[in-house]
Design a protein that fits this description.
This protein is an alpha+beta fold. The protein has 7 helices and 18 strands. It is globular, with a radius of gyration of 18 Å.
Length: 284
């Protein structure tokens, strides 16, 4: 490991991740008008937020910074692919990695990988479906739209909340911290689709004050010690391609998993590519 990566890993490891994130939660949910308006202006200017896309364009109308951060977009600014058999991007962001799952391993960065079993909470049976399948990791920056949408129509079968650290998920930390995405707190949603099972893994990060889904509401916080699992057998929600499925209250990463030989990524869907919700990124 390079000296740079060693320093980055050490600096991330010693941070009190959950305490800082709890503080950030109070900070971003503050409803003091002067404070939250100042914060919205600063973040908008620094990251180049596109206000033209937002339904609400008056910053005073947002009760808190977090309400601004998870703002709803105008209809049709994220057109959903209409191609038959298309797989749609679940998020605005940048592709961190995309490719094949190799002997149960998912590529993270040069010299680093993690196992599907670890990512999905240590359950080998849950992970088995995705052996030699396909994956992608998409990073959402602070400027991005932070609601997540279905890449393919699916019926929810299981949700798993897995405790862990809250390392940053930016490029530098991804290159430095081994097994990053299998160590951070995360929420896994398993769906049955027309091409078999699909896993959507919502990965927490430092300053991510909560992760929520449309069928459950806020999943985290609270911070937990043990894995929590929900099984959906009756009154199971089915979400169509393009439907909202969850959101990050602050930025993070979503990982998608598909079964072997069920789909392919677009030829230009590679690390570093910028994507938008609803655009075609793969094909059944």
């Amino acid at each position: 490991m390079s000296i740079k990566n060693t320093v980055v890993e050490w600096s991330q490891t010693v941070l009190p991740h959950h305490a800082l994130s709890q503080f950030m939660s109070k900070f971003t949910h503050c409803e003091n008008k002067t404070f939250k308006n100042f914060l919205i202006r600063q973040i908008s200017a620094r990251y180049g937020v596109n206000w033209d896309e937002s339904i609400t364009q008056d910053l005073s109308a947002f009760k808190s910074f977090n309400e601004f951060f998870t703002r709803e977009l105008k209809p049709n600014v994220r057109p959903l692919t209409s191609e038959s058999g298309a797989i749609a991007s679940p998020a605005d962001g940048v592709v961190s990695q995309a490719g094949k799952i190799t002997k149960g391993d998912i590529f993270q960065a040069k010299g680093k990988s993690f196992t599907v079993t670890d990512l999905l909470g240590g359950d080998a049976q849950r992970a088995e479906k995705f052996n030699d399948g396909a994956f992608t990791t998409i990073y959402l920056s602070p400027k991005d739209y932070h609601r997540l949408h279905m890449p393919l129509t699916g019926t929810l079968r299981e949700m798993v909340h897995i405790p862990g650290r809250l390392f940053s998920v930016n490029g530098a930390t991804t290159e430095a911290v081994p097994r990053l995405f299998a160590r951070n707190e995360r929420v896994v949603a398993i769906f049955d689709t027309e091409i078999g099972q699909m896993a959507l893994v919502l990965v927490g990060a430092i300053f991510v004050s909560s992760i929520e889904t449309v069928w459950h509401g806020v999943v985290t916080p609270p911070t937990i010690r043990d894995i929590r699992t929900w099984q959906y057998e009756s009154d199971t929600p089915t979400l169509n391609i393009g439907d909202e499925m969850g959101r990050f209250n602050m930025g993070s990463t979503i990982i998608m998993l598909f079964e072997k030989d069920k789909m392919t990524w677009n030829s230009d869907f590679i690390a570093g590519k910028t994507v938008k919700v609803g655009e075609k990124i793969g094909q059944i």
